[in-house]
Structure formats: structure tokens, C-alpha cells
Amino acid sequence: MANDHIDITVEPGEVHALLGENGAGKSTLMNQLYGLLQPDEGEFLVDGRPRTFRSPRDAIAAGIGMVHQHFMLVPVFTVAENVALGAERTRGGVAGWLDRRRVRREVVEVSERYGLPVDPDALVENLPVGAQQRVEIVKALTRDVDLLILDEPTAVLTPQETDELLTVMRSLTESGKSIVFITHKLKEVKAIADRITVIRRGRTVGTATPETPEDELAALMVGRDVTLEVGKAASQPGREVLTVTGLIVEDDRGVRAVNGVDLSVRAGEVLGIAGVQGNGQTELVEALMGLRAARAGAVTVDGEDLLGMSTKQILRSGVGYVPEDRSLDGVVKEFTVAENLVLDTYDRAPYGNAVKLNPAAIAAAARERVEQFDIRTSSPDAPVSTLSGGNQQKVVVAREMSRPLRLFIAAQPTRGVDVGSIEFIHGRIVRERDSGAAVLVVSSELDEVVALADRVAVMYRGRVLAVVDPQTPREELGLLMAGVTPGADKPADGVTPGAGEPADGAEEEPK
Amino acid sequence: MSTATVEDLTEVTAPDRFWNRQRRLGAALVLIGLLATVVFGALATGESARFTLSENAEGAALDIQGQLGAVLFGLVAVGAGVAMLIGVAPRWQTTLLSIGIVGFVVSFLCWQVAGKFLPLVDTVNGTLQLGLPLILGAMAGVLGERSGVVNVAIEAQLLMGAFGAALVGTMAGSVWLGLISAAMGGVLIAAMLAVFAIRFLVDQVVVGMVLNLFALGVTGFLYERLMQPQAQTYNQPPQMPQWRIPGLAEVPVLGPVLFDTNLLVWLALIVVVLIHVALSRTRWGLRTRAVGEHPTAADTVGIRVRGLRYLNVLLGGVVAGIGGAYFTLVATGSFNKNMTSGAGFIALAALIFGRWTPFGAFGAALFFGFAQKLATYLSAVGSPVPSQFLNMLPYVATIIAVAGLVGRVRAPAADGQPYTSG
Fold first, then answer.
1. Domain check: are B267 and B294 in the same one?
2. B43 and B129 belong to one structural domain
3. Matching PANTHER family, A to Z (chain B) (predicted)?
4. Which of A254, A382, A389 is CA-nearest to residue A325?
5. B101 forms bridges with which residues in the sheet?
6. Which value does ipTM take for this structure?
7. pLDDT at residue B70 tops 50
8. Which of B10, B281, B286 to mutate to test the interface with A (most CBs of A within 10 A)?
9. Can you give the pTM of this predicted structure?
10. Claim to verify: residue B66 and residue B150 sit in the same structural domain
């Protein structure tokens, strides 16, 4: 159950923050309000009258707009076409000729009135994520909404873009519109919200005001006092394990996503890669793992060239890999926990050979790993899809750490994972470092990178802009993530548009 | 500042791929151009190749010495290829490619026609007529696939259309009622496709193939049990009348082809233009494209995704059904078992070759129609080139297109994906 008897009231002209950790049920709640999901019980009142929302049509008619976490824009359409879609202005009666000029005018009008610069004729797929989000907001505003739902709007933004968004939100509430602001970031909530409702495991656990101290909000959100700190000793860097020089990688559209990256990771240290999603991190990791061809450059592990190897060879040579999209690349959902634990070693002793598997050895190993990695499952023979996100991720981590490793690469290791599992996984990553492996952690959560890393590399438009100490002030890291290097006051120009597609948000709601 | 290192942001360059698309295409053109020059040139006789501007050997004509023509036009193709190898502005690419392919085809014709004659009006007319079911079938595909429903059942729709036209046309004694029943036949198949694909989320390619077999079986059975024994009452449909527009019909070559012909030709041309304009300029078109590219986005702005898909698939059924009427109301005077013999698949190939656009698919359908016409011509003049080679052309061309040689072939993003909300 994603939502269990939630009560929430939004007043006109207020920013109402819906605070909760990943998977708490915030998006599920709002998708019901927007008519995408149907509640089993309970009702929504708009201006005091009960309304049912069978589909988004009903919600739009009731003056509700929503900016989804995964943008709902057609990539091959222009901005104006996206804005017009569903509420087209037409001439010529039944023929329904599109009145393009009128849509353009509306887009320009709305974007000027609320300070949301967008070019009506630009193709959405060519726009950076921040601009796509503005398109989404313009789209909602042209439909005369009274209530605007923003679902994790800051997950894909730089700190500076976030500030701009908050300004826009203020100008919206000044003109009398209400906003529901879904987030799990405390700082933003405190900066903008008029009232705060905290949701945990599908229940309202409390309401608060922006004056409530951060640690109190955090405790409400996760249900106990948590420290985001990771307990670790100072690193003992040894020999250079991974070296990347001049790496150039293209994305699926042939655009250069990684544009000349040089990196090195030493044994016994964690290198964290920070950056807003879609700045080449995904392609970088895929190239390292042999999942994507590199156009130029070199990648070596202990002097061995990785670029010519297949993914299997790379894994066998002592590289562990936690992919960023767990359900797509991390586990085979229909397979059991035990099977998922030997996906990489099923054809080697003791688990099997080229011809057959050895079920007894697989089962024994699975029992041991489930124990060691605290994987909460009804049985090692249960399909992995029956596990929670956090436990699925532990299966991936357990599998990758059961080989002797020289290099451990983790992309978004705690995305969509509950707090308890985050702590566990972080602890394991540090343990791997202390046992002498080189560790590369890629995360779009700056907090995670800073907590884990011994050195932080900031990526922007396919480049590593700087490698800095994790103690570097937040503002400076934020500026680097926006492409501003110290000493330069303009964002650096890359050849790659920052992010072509709407990047994945951080949240996976249980259905 | 605690910054350790700051990279300078000069442009990092990697060597551009030498064999880019233009060079690959250029190299291919040079190869086929050389093939034409050497092989066709060597095989062609020195006799004159005569291209007449009429439906027979009479009247004005263009003459060229066979061997000379084969070599000359082969070199045209080589020239176009060389220009692309050297590198030209992208906007010339399509023009050069067309010149190269036309050069190759004409070189081939010079070889084949040497010592004989090729009536141009008859060739153009045949191209258009044979292309009719392909054009209409491909338009059915455009309608369905642009809204996200793969239509592999074009063959079934054509066959059902042909059958319906023959049966009802004969029984009612009216060619127009026949045409309407052809459309109904297409809609019948489309409705089954829509219900299974949209309502029951069955794999669309599988449903399409099953429907093809279903249509083949049903029409085959009824043909053997009903039409064959009582052809008089069930299988002698009236033929579509030829309409001649005075004045315009006198224009050389195009006149007799476009203005002294049957209604289906005009209908097909109108449908192509209509779909093209409507897709880009109307509310229906915008919504159709949105539903084919990103149905969830369409749903969240209040568009009925499934409803629109039903509508488009059924409209496609009407169009393909009318295309099927060509077989029984225009081409031959009666229905025959499996008489479409794969035209629906060629239409599907034209759809892909034309990159899911109405004009592209139209061009591809005409090209394939031309190949079929040429195949008939070659077997008629007793050419040593097996006509089967030309009948293979649509499939070979499509494989080349899908392999990405001719340009990026990109289907609508949600093509073939059933939509479930929530």
C-alpha cells in the first residue's frame, strides 16, 4: 500500500510542501489527485466540493496542473506544440486547423509574465533539462491552473537553477495560485514552503512550519534520528588503479556526451563524481564497463587496457559494477535472489561449468550472502521482484562484492533505496575501499558524493571541471556543477548540450 | 579556493569518422555506377534504344544508341558518387543520390531496350496503377503507426477489400457499392487488429500476422465454395469507369496518365496530400503524432490515447480496403485466391522506406510500382534478366533502408507499444 489514509489541505496562494523520503508515497498521492491513479478510498474536495478524478482531463478541468518528475513532453515537438497539445487553439471548425501564431503568442506572454524564458520554436529534445522544466510550467500555466503540483522539480537542477525556480514559485503564489511542492530536500522546503506535510510509508506523520529545525524535520521524515555522515577513517591511497585519459564517448544520438575526461583513482580511495544528471556521467560509466564504445582515449586498470575488452572480461578482471538503473541492468526481476547472486559467475566453479549449473553450491552461496548483506527476503528462492528497492540493491551489491575486486564502480548506488539500506550500502562501499580496492562512486545526490568520497570530481557537459576536496564549501561545488570555474564568471561552454532528455528523477514509487 | 585542478576548456577534438554517411553513399553509387558502365555497357548492343512518348511504338520518341547510353548513364551515376565522395553540402546530398540512382536505372534500360522500344506513357501509367494498392496500403500504415499501432495486417486489409468489392459489387451490380464494401472489408480487419492490440494488449506484429492468415483462409474458402461455382452471381463485379478530362488529357505523358483514368488514382493522390497536411497542420495530426511518440505525455494533457488509436487504425482500414478494390474493380474483373500476393508487405516496406511520412511512403510505393512494371516489361521482351530480381527489389531496398545506409530511419517512438494508463 503506497498511501494509507492521508489527509492534506492546501490553501489558496500557499506553497504546501509534501516532504518525505524516496518511496514514501508522495508521488502516488499526487498522481491520484491528477487522475492518473484511482484511490481505493477517500475523496478530494476542490473549493469545498467533492470531485472525482477519473483521468487527467477531470483534473485539468478542475484547475489542477502537474509538472511530473519525468517530464511529459514530446521530444520531437517544438515548445509551442508541446504547450498546445491537448488544449489546441484551432480555426476552421471541425477541420481543426492549428492556430500556431496564437499558441506562440501565449507562450511568450506567459513566459514573460512569470519570468520563465523559453523559445516557442525550439525543439524540446534539444533543450537542457532546466529549460524543459520551464516548458512544463508554462504548459500548466497556459491552462489557467489554480493549483500546481511540482513533483521533485529540483532533482534535475543545479543549486542556481533551483534558486530561480523558487523565485518563479514565489511569483506564482503572489498571483494567487497554490503550489504543492513534492521533495525530499529539507533546505528547499525551509526556503519556500508556507506549510509542510511530512509523509512516511504512505501515512501523514505530521505537519510543520518552515520554522521547524532541520533535524526535527529529518527525524519526522525517516522516523528516527539519522546521521547522513558516513563513518570512515582517512583514506590510505596506494598505487594508481584506474586511469582514464582523453576519453570521448558519444550518446545514442551521436552527440558527444563525454568530451575528453581524464581521471585517476588510487587503491584505497573513493573518487566521487558529482554533477547534475545528464552531464555525461552515465556514458562515462558505460564506456568504462565496455557497455558503450569510446570514440577516443584510453582506460587502464593496473596498466591493462580496458577499452578493447568485453564487459564480461572487464568483470572477470576484477571490476565490480553497480549500474544506475537497477531494474534494467542490475537484476533480472523474474529470477530468484539466488540466481541473481550468480549472474556473473554461474559458469565458473563452484556454481557450474559451461554445460550445467550446480544448484547446491548456488543455494549455499545465496544463503551466505543473504546473511552477510542483510538481504530481507522470504527465501533465497523468491523472485527478486518481490523484494523492496533497497533489498534488490543489496542483492546487486552483494553479487558484485563477492568477487575479489581491484576496482569498484557504483553508479547511483542508493537511488530509490530506503534510509536503512543506504547506511548499509555506504558502509560496505567504505569497507571495500579499506580492503584496498579503488572505488568510483557516481551520484547525482551531492550529499552522497560528499559523504563517501575522498576526492570529488565535478562533471559538467562531458568534462571534469575540477577535482576538489569533499570539504569544499557547498556554494563552490554548486557553481562548479553549473559550469562556473573559480576565476571565470561565465558558464563554461561545452560542445554537448547539457542534457538532451529528461533525466531520471531519484524516486521510484511503489505501485 | 580549495580547488585542486581546473581543466582548461579548449575544445577537445576526436578525428571525425572518414566514412561518414555521405562518403558511404558516394562509394556505393560509384560501385553501382561502375557496374552499370562496365557490365551493362559491355552487354548492350549498338542498336538504338527507342523510348516512345505514347502507349505503343508510334509517335514521337527519344532515341539513343544502346551501348553509348548504358556507358553514358553509368558514368552519370559514377559522377554523382564521386561528387559525394569528395564532399558536398548536405542539401545537395538527396539530389545527387537521386541523380545517381536514376543514372543507374536509365543505364540499365539502355541495355535492355537496345534494339527494341519502351513506351513511356505505358510505363508511367503502369507504375501508377501497380503502385495504387501500395500507396493506399502504405497510407493505412502511416495512419496506424504514426499513432503507435504497428499494422502488419495491410495484406489482410487489401485482400478483404478486394474480396468485398468483388462480392458486393457483383451482387448489387454497382461498382460504387463495391467500393464501399471494399472499405468495409478493410475496416473489419482493422477493427480486429485494434481490439486485440489496443484493448487486449496482444503483440501487434503477432496479431497482424494472424489476421493475414485469417483473411487468406476466409476469402479462400468463400472463393472456392461460393465464387468459383457461381461466378456469374458472385464474382463478376462491374469495372471502375475511365474518366477523361478534356483538354488536360492532351498533355504529353502526364495527360493520359493522370487525366484519362479511374477514380482510384485521384482518390489515392488526394489521400496522400490530405494525410500529409492533416498530420502537420491540424489538431488531429498533432494529437496523432503525440500519441505515437509519447502516449503518457498525451494522456497527462487529457488526450484519449486509446480512442485516438482506434480511430486511426479504423481510418487506415478504410484506406487500405479501398486500395484492395483496385485488384477486383480495376486490374482484373474478378476475385482470385490470394490475389494480393504480398502487396501488403510491399506497402509495409514502402512505409518504412519512406520513413513513416506520407510523401516518403508515396515515393517509395511509386518506386516499387515501377520495379513491378519493369519486371512485366522485361519478361514480355524476353530479357535475360529474371523478372524475379526486380520483384525482390522492394525487400532489398527496405533492408538497405533499415540498415541505415540511406539515412536515419526512425519509427515513431511508441510504435508497437500498447498503452496502459497509470
1. yes
2. no
3. GUANOSINE ABC TRANSPORTER PERMEASE PROTEIN NUPQ (PTHR43370:SF1), SUGAR ABC TRANSPORTER INTEGRAL MEMBRANE PROTEIN-RELATED (PTHR43370)
4. A389
5. none
6. 0.84
7. yes
8. B286
9. 0.78
10. no
